[in-house]
């Protein structure tokens, strides 16, 4: 038996779907298990098993993250009507990420991996732009309905203490239309602001926050004011760290960001973070280079790749065709979790192993071995691309030489 590095406490492993599930297995078998003696608490969040368990497995996985502190998750299908048909599901189960986020009440930070020979599409960007996405509420916990006859749509707030109701008219609909109601909570917004402040202080980077408070004076204005209150408490620490807080109109934030050289944490409301993280990811090269971590206010961590299950590649794989799918963000999800586990357990050798794997990945790409998505944007250009498994095998060889 070759020597393996002992990991003190467990990591919660959440398996997923389609192409990422195929890569997940390879990463685990080739890059992790040969080197680490680790207790993985395994939860299968693949769509079939979620359906069989009426999605209870997702809730159990979230509780396990709360218990053990660190989780790593493979991308999963969020079913829509087409997926219900494709997989013969009992119903359109909710997004697992949404479920886990609400249980942990965490903030998602997305950080691109920067590699020398993969220059960003936005020339100015030299340092990572990290997006902090508020992971609770707004349209992700909305109620909405299609209206098919004339009538009045209202928002009604009924106080629990029996005092007078508040009734606001949304619109008098004369024709068919749609309406929506949504909410957020001060507690969640405040812990979001705190998580962002902590992240900015620990990384010593500026914190930006953008909202549309000119239009949404109360809803977006509320976010702005909570941020301002939390920032006030850390003014001295920000000054001592040489970092700044900037509140901007969201439009202005977008415009400024495109002209900046990066290196800031951009705090985003839920929907902005969902959309802008995809924009920033492709600006930095490929969705395959974007990592993501959900951090709860009481210090629980869930790591994953920002991209989805890469379904188009999976269908090719099912036809027996070779694929060239980028596994880097999924590998970094594993290394992120392992490094955090080592940090919390106070086992530097575990942290060092995670860094060794990350260095092996970056060196592999810098040596010209990369998947197709990166080949298309590499400078200097390379003449061929690696297949999915070939890339992982090359990384495995490189780790074997180092460990
Ligand atoms: P996606 O899986 O992120 O893929 C969109 C496209 O981006 C791919 O078709 C591919 O482009 C490119 N791409 C993404 N990741 C790549 C990688 N690692 N290597 C190479 N190319 C990559 O998004 P989607 O197709 O919209 O969603 C598929 C499924 O994933 C959906 O069921 C959705 O619900 C789910 N999803 C899950 C998560 C999550 O669990 N965190 C997040 C997003 C979406 P080309 O086809 O042009 O090569
Ligand atoms: Mg998105």
Secondary structure topology:
Elements: E1 5-6, E2 11-15, H1 18-32, E3 36-37, E4 40-44, H2 47-52, H3 56-68, E5 70-73, H4 81-87, H5 96-104, E6 107-112, E7 130-134, E8 143-147, E9 151-157, E10 166-173, E11 177-181, H6 186-203, E12 206-211, H7 219-233, H8 235-241, E13 245-249, H9 250-259, E14 264-268, H10 270-283, E15 290-295, E16 301-305, H11 311-318, H12 328-345, H13 348-366, H14 372-375, H15 388-402
Parallel strand pairs: 1-3, 2-4, 2-5, 5-16, 7-14, 12-13, 12-14
Antiparallel strand pairs: 6-7, 6-15, 8-11, 9-10, 15-16
Bound molecules: NADP nicotinamide-adenine-dinucleotide phosphate and magnesium ion.
How is this structure best described in words?
The protein has 403 residues and is of the alpha/beta class. It folds into three domains: 233 residues, 3-Layer(aba) Sandwich (Isopropylmalate Dehydrogenase); 121 residues; 39 residues, no CATH class. It has 15 helices and 16 strands. The strands form four sheets. A ten-stranded mixed sheet has the order 4-2-5-16-15-6-7-14-12-13, with helices on both faces. It has a two-stranded parallel ribbon with strand order 1-3. Strand 9 and strand 10 form a beta hairpin. Helix 13 crosses helix 15. It is globular. It starts with a strand and ends with a helix. The site of NADP nicotinamide-adenine-dinucleotide phosphate (NAP) has 17 residues, from helix 11.
Tell the overall outline: globular
Name of the level-1 CATH class of the largest domain: Alpha Beta
Beta-strand percent range: 15-25%
Please name the CATH topology of the largest domain: Isopropylmalate Dehydrogenase
